[in-house]
Amino acid sequence: VIDISNRQPNTSPLTKEIDGNTYTQFVANEFFTVEKWTINHKMQWDKPHAYCLVSVIDGEGKILIDDKPYDIKKGMHF
Questions:
Q1: Between the CA of residue 15 and those of 47, 53, 59, 60, 70, what are the distances in Å?
Q2: Which of 9, 33, 64, 65: CA 20 to 30 A from 48?
Q3: In this protein, which residues make up the domain named Mannose-6-phosphate isomerase cupin (predicted)?
Q4: What is the pLDDT of residues 34-67, one digit of tens each?
């Protein structure tokens, strides 16, 4: 996406603490969003869009999809 307008994009990350976990939104627009979650505790997250790409960049854990658990670890994408 190329934006040639004179508007400055928002490049300041938005960070929030949610139930002991850290959420950072780096950029968001009508086409895509780049986020980082630092997960230290169990959390529930509902996929906000039909398509979502998740990359595990450190650590390991489990994800529950339709009541079925899956092991996830660093380097995996789903």
A1: 19, 20, 20, 22, 28
A2: 9
A3: 23-78
A4: 999 999 999 988 888 888 899 999 999 999 989 9
| Cα–Cα distance, 24 to 19 (Å, whole number) | 14
Burial 3-42 (b: 16+ CB within 10 A, else e): eeeeeeeeeeeeeeeeeeeebeeeeeeeeeeeeeeebeee
- pLDDT value for 49: 82
Per domain, the residue ranges of the chain are 1-45, 47-78
Q: What type of residue is 18?
A: I
CA distance 7 to 3: 9
Q: Which tokens is 28 given?
A: 């968001």
Longest dimension (CA), the chain: 48
